Amino acid sequence: DIQMTQSPSSLSASVGDRVTITCQASQDISIYLNWYQQKPGKAPKLLIFDASTLETGVPSRFSGSGSGTDFTFIISSLQPEDFATYYCQQYGHLLTFGGGTKVEIK
Amino acid sequence: QVQLVESGGAVVQPGRSLRLSCAASGFSFSSYPLHWVRQAPGKGLEWVAVISYVGSSEYYADSVRGRFTISRDNSKNTLFLQMKSLRAEDTAVYYCARDRALYSSGWGSAFDFWGQGTVVTVSS
Questions:
Q1: Under 8 Å CB-to-CB from B112, ≥6 apart: which residues?
Q2: Residue A84 contacts residue A47 (beta carbons within 8 Å)
Q3: A14: Cβ–Cβ under 8 A, 6 or more apart, which residues?
Q4: Count of CA atoms in the C-beta half-sphere (13 A) of B22
Q5: Which of A61, A71, A82 is nearest to A12 (CA)?
Q6: What is the pLDDT of residues B46-87, one digit of tens each?
Q7: Which of A98, B5, B76, B111 could cross-link to A88 by cystine, CB 3.0-4.6 Å?
Q8: Is cis: bond before A80, omega within 30 of 0?
Q9: Share of chain B above pLDDT 90, in %
Q10: Which residues from A are below 8 Å from B59, CB to CB?
């Protein structure tokens, strides 16, 4: 099975900050990596698919990059509505989520 | 608009069975693979199972293989999850989710629409 190691598990940031989250796969998954945002009590929302493609309607301050085993998710300028938990998810072989990153207000 | 509405969640005793349903509307149901994803209280997301758009192939997480069965009724736009031999560790919110890969028979790609979830609690 492919394991996804996401870091950090939590971070504190201020509005306007640049936020970076990384995800490492236990084996090569090409670009088969997606990113989701989840707010408390709500279902997750797809933000980025295939490592770097922005889902329709998602603001351009969100971006993703990477291939193979190492991936990065960036929020270029954190907005109040961005405080949430973010998950990576691979589909190189079956489907696995990373452990999540909780983005909290500093 | 795309809607997925789960139902069937309940409090059940360990070892018992339960069937979840997910009613879909607003899209061509028979064209998309569908998944179940769960989230234990205070924990992260765990993919559970996927079924292809015509129901000809299914894939499962190791944690549920042999105990859970995913199925669909394309005539009724409904997805199911039959859960048997339930354990305490199956306690979670169960979400149904649509895969964005039209006409796929593989294990899936990304979840582009989600339901609101239904709560399953396994406890004596």
A1: A46, A49, A55, B97, B98, B99, B100
A2: no
A3: A78, A105, A106
A4: 30
A5: A82
A6: 999 999 999 999 999 999 999 999 999 999 999 999 999 999
A7: A98
A8: no
A9: 94
A10: 94
Which B residues in the span 30-69 are in contact with A, Cβ-Cβ below 8 Å? 35, 44-47, 50, 59, 61-62
What's the mean pLDDT in B94-110? Answer: 93
pLDDT for res B58:
97
The pLDDT value given to residue B64: 98
In this complex, do B100 and A49 lie within 8 Å of one another by their Cβ atoms? yes
- Tokens for A13, please give them: 């940031």
Interface residue of B45, B102, B114 to substitute, partner A, most A CBs within 10 Å = B45
Q: Which two tokens stand for residue B66?
A: 């042999």
